[in-house]
Amino acid sequence: MKQVGIESIGLYVPRYYVPLTDLARARGADPRKYTTGLGQELMGVPPPDEDVVTMGANAAHEALRDVDTDKIDTLMFATESGIDQSKAAAIYVHHLLGLPPRCKSFEIKQACCGSTAALQMALAFVAQKPDRKVLIIASDVARYGLVTAGEPTQGAGAMAFVVSAQPRILALDNEWGSYTEDVMDFWRPNYLDEAVVDGKYSIKVYIKALTESWKQYTEESGRTFADHEHYCYHLPFTRMAEKAHQHLAKINGGLSNPEQIKASLRYNRKIGNSYTASLYVGLASLLETSETDLTGHRIGMFSYGSGCMAAYFSGVVLPGYRDAVQPGRMREMLETRRALTIDEYEAFYLHELPRDGSRYLTEPHDTGRYRLAGVEAHKRLYEACAQAPQAAEPAHAVATG
Fold it and tell me: Mean pLDDT over all residues of the chain?
């Protein structure tokens, strides 16, 4: 079978962040509880005119820079921060990006594992139709509430990647392991804006799902722990990946080598939890920041979605991957953001769109190429900014729903 894998990737994070040392002081906590205990440094915060649609569209714009969009047959949008109970966020992005009308566009949900479910479907589709490509977007805003235990593990961001039979970054292996169990470790009812989480229980389920999906993956592939040079994990917070890697090494009779995951954790420390995007933020971090040439290296990847579903899979890095990831672009995005004061952060967090559907225009902030202009008659209004990355005045909406 012809190789199928990831042809291009794109990252987008909000232009604002909160230093967790500042948050710790404001909450009367020891900063080391966040920076050492969780392994986090900064927390991405979206402004009022940014949501999963705008972040996803911005990430996809980066992923599509060198891709013929006429070949994009399907757009899959994975999120657990949905904006509508009926209309998929993918439809808005389809319009903003100007994708062909024949491009199927829909939304996928299973907590943080939805993006990986999309990837597995995309691989099967491209294997059937090698001349077509699939665009996957993973975009989320992690919210746990102000002054809660989960607050320092919040974050926001989006990853986009193109799956094709002409991969330039990663050729995906055919063998997968999976695990599903009905548990209540993390969920968000329709009537809540913040997630409900049983943190200690969720960690236990995460480790169990890792163990079981790894077991099936090794049975299917015949590979061992030593057959993977690097590992990427779902990243609710950085220390979780370190615990997971120690566990995986232990059950395979070896010692955990921090160098196998070190480069994959750098971006998450500065973004925070991005739910469906977090595993692929780790992959992007590894590909762009590793001091080692990764060509020919196999990467093991663990995806976990609370509730729960998990998947274990792997891929081999391809020659020329450095050029394909557009070196420096993602790092520059992280380094040019602005720090918020705690008051500014709380104002962003508490901002709400009107719930009665009345006309409202959002104040422009620093965003990417697309922003949420407002709402009118229960319709969300999106627009392309006149200049990116600076925000534009909300003039006319280019997409309504």
Answer: 95
- Report the alpha-carbon distance of residue 364 to residue 381 in Å, rounded: 13
Look at residue 398 in the predicted model and tell me its pLDDT. Answer: 35
Q: What is the pLDDT of residues 356-367, one digit of tens each?
A: 999 999 999 999
Residue with tokens 């060198």: 66
| Whether the Cβ atoms of residue 40 and residue 266 lie closer than 8 Å to each other | no
Tell me the two tokens of residue 266: 């750098």
Query: How many other CB atoms sit within 10 Å of the CB of residue 86?
Result: 7
Q: What would the two tokens of residue 304 be?
A: 């976990």
List active site positions. Answer: 80, 112, 234
Give the Cα separation of 159 and 276 in Å (integer).
Answer: 9
Of 322, 255, 258, nearest to 284 (Cα)?
322
Question: What phi, psi does 17 have (nearest 5°)?
Answer: -150, 165
How far CA 10 is from CA of 163, 280, 305, 316, 378, in Å, comes to 12, 10, 22, 19, 31
Neighbours of 290 (CB within 10 A): 18
Model confidence over 56-65: pLDDT tens digits?
A: 999 999 999 9
Distance CA 234, CA 277 (A): 9
8 A C-beta contact, residue 272 and residue 302: no
Beta strands in 109-199 (DSSP E): 133-142, 155-164, 170-172, 177-180, 186-187, 196-197
Give dist(CA 41, CA 312) in Å, integer.
28
Q: Cis ω on the peptide bond leading into residue 364 (within 30° of 0)? A: no
C-alpha distance from residue 123 to each of 7, 22, 137 (Å): 12, 43, 15
pLDDT band at 400 (very low <50, low <70, confident <90, very high): very low
Does 69 or 387 have the greater pLDDT score? 69
Per the model's pLDDT, the better-predicted residue between 389 and 158 turns out to be 158
**167 touches 3 (CB < 8 A):** yes
Reply yes or no on domain 5-339 having CATH 3.40.47.10.
Answer: yes
